[in-house]
């Protein structure tokens, strides 16, 4: 019986069963192998050149995978996984992809040995729950009333694999100060650290060590005209989202004029409308006007005369942050319910002062002493664009990690410590189960060891020996009551030995590890459940329409 008789109506290729699984696993392995070498403090960077020749040099898993245009549907799941980790935690994007791919590879071997995918999935789920429970009960260290030291250590651990690892002491201090200075309490009384309030500005020149923290939100544009004052204090800020230019008629509006003298009046009226708008703004008390669109020269004249600072072409997201920090409202139009044009003074935000300063070679408008939440700016200096971009990515990861540490208050040891501990624990757990899931859990335990293995391989050390030592330590820690402190033993990749990473200051927020395990398992399960793939052939007839 031929295949075509079974499904005559599918216009496309159909693959099912083991073929699809093997294919998906291969694709995910390929993606993971790309980022594998960039894991850890001695990881290497990747150079990505896109179709128009722009070069990106990066070590950040999410960035690498975003730049690769992955075609394979199963591999796309991994790319989305890395982006999810980037959004949720901010760091650990590479680890997530590597763990997920390893889990898949192990699962595929089990399926080949005639174990049903459903059993594997339930085993993985169980292992994931147990692992997260074990981290939260046994491995975490509370960092009560966090002093600066653990925070700086977290930031340094996050930066260790990045370009700026050489100056990590310096940058870790910057990052911790930046995060602590945007501390705020929301309505429910929770303490939050909005990372978005930290603006990162990149300026060419000088060395990375000359980067610094500025108090105030910096806008990367100068004043719109030279006649405006350099500083205004106290500032009342209006955030606009429309053009302050001569109002033109809408398209398709025709005015039929009988008398040529009317033309002049129409032109005059067009100019006056903008003038009236500006007068409304100034009457409401605004002395700093930010707009995302343009302001033309005629309109600038009025601002200069009033002694106000106007800034045009401000980026949308900058605008949102300024509005949030100063308590302003983004105004998209002056029209009110009655059809008149009004401007409500309640829409204005307030700040202590707005000044224009010169940073590097650019004029920057700084908004200082904002009303609702404090805003700070990190000014990064560096030799070239690639370095600045990579520094920004590294700092973004570090900022997120410090924020997570502050909000969750718990840390775990880094350097493969958690993975090895979980591996030993889950292996022991697997032997206590008498069900089918036993095999899946044992494989899950093995898969977690991929992290210390890859770390050691990247550092050009003997992976087998180091991982064996690590597991011995963790086994001791879990079996002998007086050796509990061994549970934070991890790898020291510079010297190629095993050491206590909690004392060495290699720590990460516990939340990051828990999320890595959860996300990786979920992604692996998603791909594992697929056993049939139908690729539809594009219909020729529809292309012409």
From TrEMBL:
PROSITE patterns: TCP1_1, TCP1_2, TCP1_3. SUPFAM superfamilies: GroEL apical domain-like (SSF52029), GroEL equatorial domain-like (SSF48592), GroEL-intermediate domain like (SSF54849). Keywords: ATP-binding, Chaperone, Cytoplasm, Nucleotide-binding. Gene3D superfamilies: GroEL, GroEL-like equatorial domain, TCP-1-like chaperonin intermediate domain. It is found in: Cytoplasm. InterPro entries: Chap_CCT_alpha, Chaperone_TCP-1, Chaperonin_TCP-1_CS, Cpn60/GroEL/TCP-1, GroEL-like_apical_dom_sf, GROEL-like_equatorial_sf, TCP-1-like_intermed_sf, TCP-1_chaperonin. Pfam families: Cpn60_TCP1 (PF00118). One of its GO terms (molecular function) is ATP-dependent protein folding chaperone. One of its GO terms (cellular component) is cytoplasm. Molecular chaperone; assists the folding of proteins upon ATP hydrolysis. Known to play a role, in vitro, in the folding of actin and tubulin. NCBIfam families: chap_CCT_alpha (TIGR02340), thermosome_alpha (NF041082), thermosome_beta (NF041083). Belongs to the TCP-1 chaperonin family. This is T-complex protein 1 subunit alpha. It comes from Eutrema salsugineum (Saltwater cress).
């Amino acid at each position: 019986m031929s295949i075509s008789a079974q499904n005559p109506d599918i216009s496309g290729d159909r693959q099912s069963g083991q073929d699809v699984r093997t294919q998906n696993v291969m694709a995910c392995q390929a993606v993971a192998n790309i980022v594998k070498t960039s894991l850890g403090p001695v990881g290497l960077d990747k150079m990505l050149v896109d179709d128009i020749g722009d070069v990106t040099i990066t070590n950040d898993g999410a960035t690498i995978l975003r730049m690769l245009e992955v075609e394979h549907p199963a591999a796309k799941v991994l790319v989305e996984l890395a982006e999810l980790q980037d959004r949720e935690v901010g760091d650990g994007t590479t680890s997530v992809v590597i763990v997920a791919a390893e889990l898949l590879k192990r699962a595929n071997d089990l399926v080949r040995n005639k174990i049903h995918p459903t059993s594997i999935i339930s085993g993985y789920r169980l292992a994931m729950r147990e692992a997260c429970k074990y981290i939260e009960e046994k491995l975490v260290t509370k960092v009560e009333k966090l002093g600066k030291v653990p925070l700086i250590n977290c930031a340094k651990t996050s930066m260790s694999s990045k370009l700026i690892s050489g100056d990590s002491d310096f940058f870790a201090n910057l990052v911790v100060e930046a995060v602590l200075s945007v501390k705020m309490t929301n309505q429910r009384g929770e303490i939050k650290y909005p990372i978005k309030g930290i603006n990162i500005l990149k300026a060419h020149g000088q060395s990375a060590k000359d980067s610094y923290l500025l108090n105030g939100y910096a806008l990367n544009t100068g004043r719109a005209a030279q006649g405006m004052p350099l500083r205004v204090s106290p500032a009342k800020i209006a955030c606009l989202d429309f053009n302050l230019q001569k109002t033109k008629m809408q398209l398709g509006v025709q005015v039929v004029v009988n008398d040529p003298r009317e033309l002049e009046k129409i032109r005059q009226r067009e100019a006056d409308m903008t003038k009236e708008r500006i007068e409304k703004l100034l009457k409401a008390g605004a002395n700093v006007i930010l707009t995302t669109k343009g302001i033309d020269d005629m309109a600038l004249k009025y601002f200069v005369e009033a002694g106000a600072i106007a800034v045009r072409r401000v980026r949308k997201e900058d605008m949102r942050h300024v509005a949030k920090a100063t308590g302003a409202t983004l105004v998209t139009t002056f029209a009110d319910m009655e059809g008149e044009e009004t401007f409500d003074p309640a829409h204005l935000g307030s700040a202590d002062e707005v000044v224009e300063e010169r940073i590097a070679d650019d004029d920057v408008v700084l908004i200082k002493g904002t009303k609702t939440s404090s805003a700070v700016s990190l000014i990064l200096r560096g030799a070239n664009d690639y370095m600045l971009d990579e520094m920004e990515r590294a700092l973004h990861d570090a900022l997120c990690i410090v924020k997570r540490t502050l909000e969750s208050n718990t840390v775990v040891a880094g350097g493969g410590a958690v993975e090895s501990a979980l591996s030993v624990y889950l292996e022991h757990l697997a032997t206590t189960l008498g069900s089918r899931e036993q095999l899946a859990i044992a494989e899950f335990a093995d898969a977690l060891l991929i992290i210390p293995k890859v770390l050691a391989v990247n550092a050009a050390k003997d992976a087998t020996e180091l991982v064996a030592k690590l597991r011995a330590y963790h086994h001791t820690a879990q079996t002998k009551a007086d050796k509990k402190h061994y549970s934070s033993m991890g790898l020291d990749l510079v010297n190629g030995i095993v050491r206590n990473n909690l004392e060495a200051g290699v720590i990460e927020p516990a939340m990051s590890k828990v999320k890595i395990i959860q996300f990786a398992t979920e992604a692996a399960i998603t791909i594992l459940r697929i056993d049939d793939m139908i690729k539809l052939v594009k219909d020729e007839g529809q292309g012409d329409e």
